[in-house]
Design a protein that fits this description.
Structural class: alpha+beta
Strand content: 25-35%
Radius of gyration: 28 Å
Mean pLDDT: 96
Helix content: 10-25%
Number of helices: 16
Distance between the termini: 73 Å
Number of strands: 45
């Protein structure tokens, strides 16, 4: 196949202004304008307000290319074109696009000429396009209340681009994927689809279906390679769509398992023709979604290779608000951080992207199960024939593109579209009309998915209590998956997490501020106050700052300065999510999943994320590494507070023996042993191993424990009998020393003279700590390895400067 790549440098101009710049494709227009110093950095201060004009204009990009002999059949191959755009070749319109989530392959043969040619893409303002399409609807369709820019629901592009309660609102546009010119010789591969059947008797059948598009009649050889097997098939082509299926029978297959449950065995599948080669990594496994009825309602659990898996993880949003600021390396680092925190699932939320192949390849390799939302979120969408036809093409392309990835275990129709029917005056006043409209869209997605890839597992919406169940899955916890937001949005105490027993909680969260080093990237010294205009601008949830402060007032003594306010906000975020996860895991198998909101950030902002913008670990992420361990111990108070039960959870497939040491911890930091026991937990189970009367714990003490497990894991924790603000904490007198480790990292020794809770080490130098947010008793020390993101050997000079926080120092008035 003759391929002329068209990525690289293009000329950027606007028919609405005199601005001009160079843009790198793939890329976005805002970043190109920032690079050319035409706009300021929208992430800094309140510059977002100053760049709003960009999205109100039309823009165009143009470049030239050469074709020596333009005879034959030629087409453009384009992905991630955002969004309403016309593509011209030599000023001949060859494509009118309006869906960022489709692949376009327009024929351009008639437009080409010998030697030099030009390709130009005219982007229509997403804001103008949304308004124009809203005006044509048969009735008004409300858009998400999280979006400052209206009518994003009219366009098939990431919905968070119009703003969200964690994202800035600048409605970006650009081309984020492939663009190349290709010559079609007989046929091209459209899709390679695999389906696994008959996982029994120690073997599996893998069906490989290759769909091809031919422009003429002919015969082409297709080579298949899978494992050790190789073969060639000579296939007759007729003009239009063609397909061929081959069966590979695999004896004694190596299975693909989620992280923490086994190995991620991957087989290489290669399909090639004389003009192109497609390679896929295939993981052999079975997946079932269990929704059988029981006394509480109906289950929601995943069974992989015959074993039920408790899903531990978080929700994924786009890696950056602007595409040009992402990279495969940054994305892989975020996903690696998820696995390093003992996660085995992420949910790709419905207001962002269907991610690229590299993303899912990484999930396959790391063992991260993927809950894949179709990209609809929190809006009321059109159900007109043209919109639904567009959606059908989108669903067919995306499901066929991605179905072979072993990591994808669920396809979900949308995020919170059922709930949105009650969020707007128009929908409340005429719910039947909007419900019927929603059902048409949802059924279109389901029908298109099942037609394209019948083997895919479908779930209608998130949250949902079941198929065609339009009930309140935000408060009803008996069936299906649940989004539980009462603690944050309804200002309930953390203990309220124990008032529900979800079957699978796919969203819940609590906000904190992003870490101080990240705040320094967008705020000046004068802005370091949570009520400053800049800090409020980087808080997109209405009432978010007040809720963080009010919750802090209920649980802690107020911090002494801004830096400690930021620190304490992260501590309370970690406590909130730990409270939920510890309890829900103890309910296993009644509850079989907890995915908190959210893993990552798209820009520097106060949010529910456990990873800072840039990938640094917040306190929650260090705590998640502990509470998401496959083997974990948690102290859970009874509803009346009279007892503390110790729950032992075993998510592994083997018997586990645990040695649990329980003690009291005085406010001076003295440990007093209370109980030591050995306990056994069977595979994939949760048991209560010990119950302690609360009145056995002195009022001036905390309950503390540590454990070691037979699989080599271990952990520790503490439980406060009343509230943290009731504790008369004494100075811990922490001391810290730093020494090079000899491999570009640094060893940090922290020593404590008293009780130190939630000890956090922080530096302006980006990097990862081997441990953080830990406790120390009097006379104890902890050695922590800090590995800079950029090795110290490549940045010679003084070692990083570290700050250290703990709860008592944070709240001290002195």
């Amino acid at each position: 196949m003759t391929i002329i790549p068209l990525t690289g440098q293009w000329r950027l101009t606007s028919p609405d202004s005199t601005h001009a710049a160079t843009i790198s494709i793939p890329g976005d227009i805002h970043t190109a304008l920032k690079t050319a110093d035409i706009i300021p950095d929208p992430y800094v201060g309140r510059n977002e307000n100053d760049v709003q004009w960009v999205a109100h204009q039309d823009w165009q990009i143009e470049r030239s290319f050469n074709v020596d002999e333009p005879d034959g059949s030629w087409y453009l191959d384009i992905t991630y074109l955002d969004t309403v755009a016309i593509v011209f070749v030599n000023d001949v319109p060859v494509l009118s696009a309006d869906n960022c989530f489709r692949r376009y392959r327009p024929d351009v043969s008639a437009a080409l000429k010998p030697c030099e040619n030009t390709v130009r893409i005219l982007f229509h303002s997403n804001i103008k396009a949304g308004a124009e399409r809203q005006a044509k609807q048969p009735f008004y369709l409300p858009f998400s209340k999280n979006c400052p820019i209206p009518d994003g629901n009219m366009l098939r592009k990431p919905q968070c681009h119009f703003g969200w309660d964690w994202n800035l609102a600048i409605a970006p546009l650009g081309l984020y994927g492939e663009i190349s010119l290709k010559r079609l010789d007989v046929a091209r591969i459209e899709h390679v689809i695999t389906e696994q059947r008959h996982h029994d008797d120690g073997s599996v059948d893998l069906y490989v279906t290759v769909s091809l598009h031919a422009d003429t009649q002919g015969v082409i050889p297709i080579h298949f390679a899978f494992g050790e097997e190789r073969l060639r098939l000579d296939c007759g082509m007729r003009p239009g769509e063609n397909s061929i299926t081959h069966l590979f029978h695999v004896e004694n297959p190596k299975l693909w398992w989620p992280a923490g449950s086994g190995e991620q065995a991957l087989y290489s599948l290669i399909v090639d023709t004389p003009s192109e080669t497609i390679t896929r990594q295939i993981g052999l496994r079975t997946v079932e979604l269990l929704t059988d009825k029981d006394e509480a309602g109906s289950r929601f659990a995943f069974r992989i290779n015959g074993h039920e898996i408790f899903c531990r993880g978080a929700n994924w949003i786009p890696a950056d608000a602007l595409f040009s600021l992402t990279s495969p390396e940054k994305t892989e680092d975020l996903l690696k951080s998820a696995v390093d925190a003992n996660m085995n699932m992420i949910r790709i939320w419905g207001g962002g992207f269907y991610e690229d192949e590299q993303f899912y390849d990484t999930c396959d390799r790391l063992g991260l199960m993927v809950w894949q939302d179709f990209q609809f979120a929190c809006n009321i969408y059109p159900s007109t024939p043209d919109f639904l036809e567009n959606v059908e093409h989108e669903v067919e392309y995306q499901t066929k593109r991605l179905i072979s990835h072993p990591s994808i275990v669920l396809w979900c129709g949308d995020n919170e579209l059922v709930g949105a029917l009650l969020w707007y005056e128009e929908t409340r006043n005429n719910r039947d009309r909007y419900l019927v409209s929603y059902d048409r869209l949802n059924h279109t997605i389901e029908r298109a998915m099942k037609k394209a890839v019948p083997q895919a597992i479908w779930w209608p919406s998130s949250p949902a209590s079941g198929y065609l169940d339009y009930g309140d899955a935000w408060h009803a916890d008996g069936s299906g998956d649940m989004h539980f937001w009462s603690v944050w949005h309804e200002n309930k105490p953390f203990e309220h997490y124990r008032d529900v027993k979800p079957r699978f909680c796919s969203e819940f969260g609590f906000q904190s501020y992003t870490s101080l080093p990240v705040i320094h990237t967008y705020a000046e010294e004068k802005d370091l106050n949570i009520a400053s205009p800049v800090m409020e601008h980087h808080q997109r949830n209405v009432g978010g700052n007040e809720r963080i402060a009010a919750t802090m007032f209920r649980n802690f003594r107020f911090p002494k300065d801004f830096a400690n306010f930021v620190y304490l906000s992260q501590v309370q975020q970690g406590i909130a999510i730990r409270t939920a996860v510890d309890y829900w895991r103890s309910l296993k198998p009644h509850c079989m999943g907890a995915l908190y909101w959210q893993l990552n950030d798209t820009w520097p902002v106060a949010s529910w994320a456990s990873l800072d913008y840039g990938g640094g670990w917040k306190v929650l992420h260090y705590m998640a590494r502990c509470f998401f361990q496959p083997v974990a111990v948690a102290a859970i108070p009874s509803e009346d507070g009279r007892e503390i039960r110790f729950s032992l959870v075993n998510d592994t497939l083997e018997d586990i023996t645990v040695t649990l040491n329980i003690s009291t911890l005085s406010l001076t930091g003295e440990r007093r042993p209370l109980r030591s026991i050995d306990a056994v937990c069977s595979p994939d189970a949760a048991v209560t191993v010990l119950t302690i009367p609360a009145d056995t714990i002195p009022r001036d003490s905390l309950l503390s424990w540590n454990f070691t497990a037979s699989n080599g894991s271990g952990g520790e924790g503490h439980h406060v009998m009343d509230s943290y603000k009731a504790l008369e904490l004494l100075p811990a007198s922490l001391e810290m020393s730093v020494s090079p480790s000899g491999d570009g990292a640094f060893d940090i020794l922290v020593q404590s003279a008293g009780l130190a809770l939630f000890v956090l080490i922080e530096s302006e130098t980006p990097g990862r700590y081997s441990d953080n947010a830990f406790d120390l008793a009097a006379g104890e020390n902890r050695k922590v390895r800090f590995t800079p993101s950029v090795p110290a050997a490549s940045t010679p000079g003084s070692p990083p400067v570290f700050r250290i926080y703990d709860l008592q120092s944070c709240q001290s008035a002195g």
